[in-house]
TrEMBL record:
Bilayer disposition of the protein: Multi-pass membrane protein
Keywords in alphabetical order: Lipid metabolism, Membrane, Oxidoreductase, Transmembrane, Transmembrane helix
Source species: Pseudahrensia aquimaris
The protein's Enzyme Commission number: 1.-.-.-
One Pfam assignment: FA_hydroxylase
Superkingdom assignment: Bacteria
Compartmental location: Endomembrane system
Protein name: Sterol desaturase family protein
Gene Ontology MF terms: oxidoreductase activity
Chain ranges passing through the membrane: 12-30, 51-74, 86-109
Amino acid sequence: MTEFLATHEPTIRLAVFIGLFGILALSEYLRPRRKLTAPKGSRWFTNAAIVVIDSVVVRLIFPAAAVGVALWAQSNGYGLFNMVDAPLWVAGLVSIVVLDFAVWLSHLLSHKVPMFWRFHRMHHSDTDIDVSTAIRFHPVEIVASMVYKVAWVVALGAPAWSVILFEIILNGVAMFNHANLKLPVWLDRIVRLVVVTPDMHRVHHSTVPRETDSNYGFNFPFWDRMFGTYIAQPSAGHDGMHIGLEEWQDERPQKLGWALSVPLLPLNKD
């Protein structure tokens, strides 16, 4: 079963991605949380082009992706869970939780380390936030994050099935919490106890520095609560807040060439 999943991992992930993207795009169209400020066509073209470039680059550099590395580590006995006798379900569950923490930590560092921020701010330069923002990451950041993730997978000796499941969950939840989707207040209050909601993550995309420096979680919300980086709501409210980066509140972030050149632009966080 694991080998089947590994062999068909790209197809499985693509099918889930397309399905969830379509569902969330329709949902945010029918029940939008905020009125978008930029033309959707140009934004979506740029964000879609970025994810195509990212996918090609990653497959060229990591043809087997993280799951292939997990199988390699397993066959060579590398990593914690390949050295200890633990039930497979325990190893998988712990691996998913630890990998989620690793992603939270990576996201935090992408804001704190100037060199990392150079690339990550392409994601934050989007002047609106919707399901397409979830796929807007610089190719260099994507490659670096894959190297980082692979290191954690090897160190853990994470079971291949848990790596596949983690990737699917992470991608799906990232699209969900970037969606311009209006949830009932009571439902948001419950869901954000276990999963990062759109209202919770939208705070992170505020132009207010204190709010940008919060809510780093993509999947589980409790890391931010544990480490003091949680902010419940934006100070200006979800309708009044500004999205993106203060220095680029114009049409430039909608352009593909400009977005890819962001790391070369002056860095205000030096």
